[in-house]
User: Which sequence fits this backbone?
């Protein structure tokens, strides 16, 4: 049996048309349903060439028990970031502000008013990589919405204000201080993984702009260490 995504034209959305999750495309129908049921929106954003998007679909979105948990507590929305870059950009900024990192798949929990209050990227089916399982996340968010709905809504208003403020930011007119580059290198060195390359913990994404910056600064140990780890690993695109 297919869900509402079977009627979409996006190849990425149609890939999820036969998931047991009751996916809806981004639009008024999903937003109306969330308001009427007073349920959080679970907005999952990705694109066709995204490896971890396919992994999470296979591990979680195709699993009947996981899909049941999603359908019972949330209005589930699938977004193709190449079709709706505006939605992707808004929620990516929110998740980066909340967690300090972003990537795809981007999974965001929002109030029925579309304001994000929790989010992340890839979540495994079982606890690993230092991450909770996807079903643990679902249960925790559903419980929090049931018990602390007013507090979540109050907090989400602050998130909305911060996002609106960020949209109004203008570039600083103060002169650039070269010391800022040294601070950036120091922060990256603190996060660098000398064993596996890259920065922070798994799962990781190829940090192309970071490597270009470090290479230009002459930081070849982190740059080449990461590139060699990628070349020796199983990454492909």
Assistant:
């Amino acid at each position: 049996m297919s869900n509402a995504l079977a009627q979409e034209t996006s190849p990425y959305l149609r890939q999820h048309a036969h998931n047991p999750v009751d996916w809806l495309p981004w639009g008024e129908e999903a937003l109306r349903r969330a308001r009427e049921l007073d349920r959080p929106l679970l907005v999952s954003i990705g694109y066709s060439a995204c490896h971890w998007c396919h992994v999470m679909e296979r591990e979680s979105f195709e699993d009947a028990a996981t899909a049941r948990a999603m359908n019972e507590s949330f209005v589930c929305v699938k977004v193709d970031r190449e079709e709706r870059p505006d939605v992707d950009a808004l929620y990516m900024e929110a998740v980066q502000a909340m967690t300090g990192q972003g990537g795809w798949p981007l999974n965001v929990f929002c109030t029925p008013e579309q304001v994000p209050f929790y989010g992340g990227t890839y979540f495994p089916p079982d606890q690993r990589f230092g991450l909770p399982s996807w079903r643990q996340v679902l249960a925790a968010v559903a419980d929090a919405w049931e018990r602390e709905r007013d507090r979540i809504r109050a907090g989400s208003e602050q998130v909305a204000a911060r996002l609106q403020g960020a949209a109004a930011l203008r570039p600083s007119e103060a002169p650039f201080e070269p010391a800022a580059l040294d601070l950036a290198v120091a922060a990256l060195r603190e996060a660098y993984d000398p064993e596996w390359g890259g920065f922070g913990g798994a799962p990781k994404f190829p940090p192309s702009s970071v490597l270009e910056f470090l290479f230009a600064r002459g930081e070849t140990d982190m740059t080449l260490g990461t590139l060699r780890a990628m070349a020796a690993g199983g990454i492909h695109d």
Q: What stands out?
A: The chain has ten helices and five strands. The chain has two domains: 4-167, 179-232. The longest strand covers residues 41-46.
